[in-house]
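Project standup — Tuesday

K.O.: blocked on the structure for the chain from last sprint. Re-posting the sequence here as requested.
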Amino acid sequence: MTLTSYLIRNKLHLSILSALGAAAWSMYFGVEVNWWAILTVFFLTFSIYQYNRLTDDVEDSANDPDSFQDAKKNEILITYVSFYLLSALSLIIAYQFGMMAFWVTLGIEIIGFLYNHKCFPDFLSNMLGGARRFKDIYVVKNLTPPIDWATALVFLPLIFANEPLTLQAWICWAYVFLCTFFIEVMWDMRDRHGDLISGIKTIANSFSLYKTKVILNTLNAASGIGIMLATYKGVLPQVSYFLLSNNVAVMLIASAYKEEKAHAMRKISDMTIFLAGMLFLSFGFIAYFSH
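H.V.: unblocked you, prediction finished:
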């Protein structure tokens, strides 16, 4: 197994991206990088996505059977060390920086748990059409991970530094939310086959691939225009124009998806994480030196 395959299979690429993103946004806001905050973001991402490897049994058996079998072999390690232990360590670290940091970290963990774990009681599941977790609920499955990502990357570093959540911070939160939403939909485009087998209704399998691309690129263009206007009006610093490179990347990658090349699209979608990591890191350095 290559290093890249190992990083992707164990969700380390996502965890590294989240840590880079949190550091970059700290530099963007002119806040000293708090390595405890960065470590907490890394732990949160790693614990939630590792646990997700165990809970998507039906769809991953079709979409990525080798990764699922590997996860099942390490079920005890993933459950009790990667998820429970790292979640507990995240809360312990956050508590040192105040109750606000503690509660926001706990909120991220609860959303991640309810997204993955099939724990809804029968009466609630019946009301939700058989859904046992957030991931089973149409559209909600695409909205909950972006809430976690945007909160961890943009808000947590500011909260750890005891900084206020300004209008600028909320605009950046909304932008990261939308970018993560785009990635979620692109992953659903990649996983259409397995999601259909498992009965999970997604945006990507509710519409044709072409219509999904149109929806994705329209929202992507709107978010880019929003960043341009906020930067032009002086609400965001001039360095924010650099964020538009992320919008261009989303448009190119989404447009490249072809259903008959599902295996190739899986590799491309995984590489988008590395691309986003490099974008955020370089953006952070530009923001830092602009201060």
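K.O.: great, moving the ticket to review. Residues 3-290 form one domain. The chain is about 80% helix and 0% strand.
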